[in-house]
Design brief:
The chain is built from six helices and 14 strands. The protein is α+β, with helices and mostly antiparallel strands. The protein has two domains: 133 residues, no CATH class; 98 residues, PRC-barrel domain (SH3 type barrels). It has a six-stranded mixed beta sheet. Strands 12-11-10-9-14-13 form a six-stranded mixed beta sheet. Strand 10 and strand 11 form a beta hairpin. The longest helix is centred in the first third of the chain and has 10 residues.
């Protein structure tokens, strides 16, 4: 889950739609989001995450038992400095300050929230360790985070409404549902899923090929190198293209997940 309960002064406003339940509207025929809560379920506050040390582990199951201290094979790689929240209220990334000495020479990296695991601290109730799969070298090699101003061309590129040339720079939310075109600009199918590798980068793009209205479509896995992102024209959107025909894609092995 990307959504994290925020109960700081600013976070409280953001938290309301995240945990929103539905209650009958006045008409009795519609539902409306609940605005206020007398209590909420177990969650993690933004203030609990910011300032936490981040550890990297070679392997993680995602169901690690509570520990009284960081595991011996965990590597201290940085510290959570902030969270990035999209307009829909999803926490897209945790900003992790990596490297440097006493704050000098640090680089800030945006880490997908889904890559972070919270391992309970057995020594202190309600506390936890933040750990991700990988190592220090992977974070130091990751691109530095650069905030974009809302409404700018760069921001629209990141949202997928203007072109980017590197498909790995686009999130699964942006890619999912995008049509994929082949030779002669014939529509071959659409993106149904994106599979990330252990380092969080896009490893496979799953395209549903053929079928009618999604029925009978065959999912196939393409590598990012097989897909070309073409620039958006004025008033349009970016498009995805492959140098193949529908017959060639349907001849590929079916992706089983």
């Amino acid at each position: 889950m990307k959504k994290v309960l925020l109960t700081t002064a600013m976070g409280m406003m953001l938290a309301l739609p995240l945990a929103a339940q539905t209650v009958p509207a006045a008409t009795g025929t519609e539902t409306a989001p609940q605005v206020f809560f007398d209590r909420v379920g177990a969650g993690v506050k933004a203030s609990d995450l910011v300032g936490k040390r981040v550890y990297a582990a070679k392997t993680l199951t995602g169901t690690e038992a509570a520990l009284e201290k960081p595991a011996d094979d965990w590597e201290d790689v940085g510290e959570v400095s902030d969270l990035v929240i999209d307009p829909a209220g999803d926490i897209e990334a945790a900003l992790v300050d990596v490297g440097g000495f006493l704050g000098i020479g640090e680089k800030t990296v945006a880490v997908n929230m889904e890559a972070l695991h919270l391992v309970p601290d057995a020594a202190t109730a309600g506390r936890f360790f933040v750990v991700m799969q990988g190592d220090r070298a992977a974070l130091e090699a990751a691109p530095a985070y650069a905030a974009v101003e809302p409404g700018t061309t760069e921001a629209r590129n990141a949202a997928g409404s203007l072109p980017v040339t590197d498909i790995t720079a686009l999130s699964a939310d942006v890619l999912t549902g995008k049509p994929v075109y082949g030779i002669g600009d014939a529509k071959l199918g659409e993106v149904s899923d994106v599979v990330a590798g252990a380092d969080g980068t896009t490893e496979k793009v799953i395209v549903d090929v053929g079928g009618v209205l999604g029925i009978g479509a065959k999912p196939v896995a393409l590598s990012p190198a097989q897909i070309e992102v073409k620039p958006a024209t004025d008033g349009g959107e970016m498009t995805l293209h492959v140098a193949a025909t529908e017959e060639e894609l349907t001849a590929m092995p079916e992706y089983k997940g």
